[in-house]
Amino acid sequence: MIPLPALSEHLRELAGERGGVLGVLPGLVADDSPGWIPVPELTREPYGPLLALVDETAERWSAPRHVAAALLWKTYTYWHTLPMVLGWALERRVPLMRLAGTLVRPSDAGVTIAAATGSAVTVAVLPGDPLAGTPGTVIVPGLASAVRDALLDGQHPLIRALCTQTRLGERTLWGSTAEAIAHPLLPLVPRDDVTRLLAEMGPPVDGLLVPDGDGYRRRTCCLWITLPDADPCSTCCVR
Fold first, then answer.
1. CB neighbours of 22 closer than 8 A, spacing ≥ 6?
2. Residue 168 above 60 pLDDT?
3. Is 197 exposed, middle or buried (CB count within 10 Å of its CB: 0-12, 13-18, 19+)?
């Protein structure tokens, strides 16, 4: 966990960058405005809402459909995974972003993820946590396995749907999830802690990142490099 003085300074800087807002930005709070899609709808045949998001991504980047699907997933998994991994790093309390309670809509960031209105987000805590047993918490023996189970519940159905419709391999998409776990954590915790978290989580994310200098390199490609005039990502397996 981050030492409290460093965390306080980090939070002050963050609030300054966000116009004084510390917490959930207004645009991330689900309301009754049109455009929010319950994520379970993306996993149901004939996959109309999911393919609409893929097509929108394809138009944005002038990309083939399978590349657009990979880029859509890279954006989606980053925002979906972020609350869980930051909760793990900052407080050792993990909000479980499960499929049934998650919403998505297109945005300037690609997609925006939110918890469904009226949906209580369960927070996984360890047995010794002062909040253990309070409403909205679930006591787990290990937070890494809790993150893994939430990812399998919240992402695997989407990954299967994308792969079915675009002929992508699941390993390619799980590689983006592995990076979504590691990328926001490296400024907060030592790389060995990130490696240990992925190892404790196990398949399908363990082993998809390898140490490289002070950071890591992916074993899979997000397919960004296939776009015309695109430079490889700093973590790309394509050198």
1. 11, 14, 15
2. yes
3. buried
Chain centroid to Cα 92, Å, comes to: 17
Strands (E), 122-190: 123-125, 137-139
Q: Tell me, what's the pLDDT at 112?
A: 92
User: Torsion-angle region of residue 11: left (phi > 0), alpha (psi -120 to 50) or beta?
Assistant: alpha
Number of domains present in the structure of the chain: 1
Q: Residue 211, preceding bond cis, omega within 30 degrees?
A: no
Q: What residues make up the domain containing 168?
A: 30-206
- Does residue 99 belong to any structural domain of this protein? yes
CATH of the domain at 126: 1.10.510.40
Is the model's pLDDT at 132 over the cut of 70? Answer: yes
In a domain? residue 231? no
pLDDT at res. 66: 97
DSSP assignment, residue 141? S
Tokens standing for residue 1? 């966990």
pTM of this prediction exceeds 0.85: yes
**Residue-wise pLDDT tens digits, 36-52:** 999 999 999 999 999 99
Structural domain contains residue 202: yes
Position 1 in a domain: no
Residues 6+ apart with CB under 8 A from 4: none
